[in-house]
Amino acid sequence: MKFCNEENIKKIDKYLEKNKESIVNELMELVKIPSVQGEALEGMPFGKDCHSMLDAAAKLYEKNGFNAVTKHSEGYGYATYGEAEKTIGLFAHGDVVPVDDSWIYTKPFEPVVSGRYIIGRGCNDNKSGIISALYAAKAIRDLDFPLKSKLMMITGINEETGMIDIENFARNERTPELTLVPDANYPLVKGEKGIFHFNITSKKAFKQIKKFKGGCAYNVVLDKVEVELNYSDALLNELKELNIGARSEEDTIYITFKGMSSHAAHPEHSDNA
Ligand SMILES: [Zn+2]
After folding, report:
1. Which CATH number does the domain 196-273 belong to among 3.40.50.20, 3.40.50.620, 3.40.50.720, 3.30.70.360?
2. Which CATH number applies to 6-180?
3. How far is the CA of 203 from the centre of ligand 1 (A)?
């Protein structure tokens, strides 16, 4: 009998509907953790908050009746369900992109439910993935669905800033035969929107530019750029004519450009500072 039939789909829908409140509440609890990569500490290479996130995910799995393993120094944890020769992985990440001051409707780590949505940093990318993996395993277990493979629900905490978590995972663990990543649209995503990372270095030192800084992550359209230049009357006058809000203090000219941030996958409606 085909497993993915209408009757089973209805059972799963009913199960999720019945658990809606805990799904929402558990996700909200994860969103409250400000798991932006921070300063590396002893045994916590991705900073305190990312590692709190790992602990929270492990606690959640334990609370729901799964055994959880946490590898803090490696930046990942996992829980499993079932015993079989082959494994299906479900990989989600609990770290989030840094926040900027473009959060105008809510506070990033104080999630709110608004209509059919939850608003908060990481409620979609990708703390929802942790909850999806958990409830997929729970539904299979609680509805007694037969499973030929072991399930391994993996949580990483370095997806946004280097993916060292998954590198460590692949080095230390037997990787699942197949892994689903609930961090995009089902069923398949090939590469991340052709993103292009590059570093450039000037052959000559910048003498007039003291500081040039913008953006909060590689895959985010710049919300703000700050520039500091060596002061000169001529330069300040020239900049003032451009009407870009240049101001001076002692020996420095300051300019701040404002934009409208957005994930680089959806640059439409954003404004690059
Ligand atoms: Zn993600």
Report:
1. 3.30.70.360
2. 3.40.630.10
3. 35
CA distance 123 to 102: 17
Domain 6-180 matches domain 196-273 at the CATH topology level: no
Per-residue model confidence as pLDDT tens digits over 220-261 = 889 899 999 999 999 999 999 999 999 999 999 999 999 988
For residue 237, list its beta bridge partners.
none
Q: CB–CB of 137/66 below 8 Å?
A: yes
Distances (CA, A) of 70 to 42, 104, 154: 16, 35, 10
The tokens for 109 are 């780590």
Q: How far is CA 241 from the centre of its chain?
A: 41
Question: How much distance in Å is there from the Cα of 95 to the middle of ligand 1?
Answer: 8
pTM above 0.85, yes or no: no
Q: Which residues neighbour ligand 1 (ion) by CB within 5 Å?
A: 125-126, 183
Distance 94 CA to ligand 1 centre (A): 8
261-270 pLDDT, tens digit per residue, is 888 878 889 9
Rounded to whole angstroms, the Cα distance separating 196 from 7 reads 45
According to DSSP, the residues that pair with 227 across neighbouring strands are: 212, 255
Q: What is the DSSP string of 259-272?
A: -B--BTT--TT-B-
CB 216 within 8 A of CB 97: yes
Q: Domain residues of the chain, as ranges?
A: 6-180, 196-273
What pLDDT does 180 receive?
92
pLDDT tens sequence across 60-104? 999 999 999 999 999 999 999 999 999 999 999 999 998 877 788
Residue 30 Cα to ligand 1 midpoint, Å, equals 15
160 alpha carbon to ligand 1 midpoint, in Å?
Answer: 7
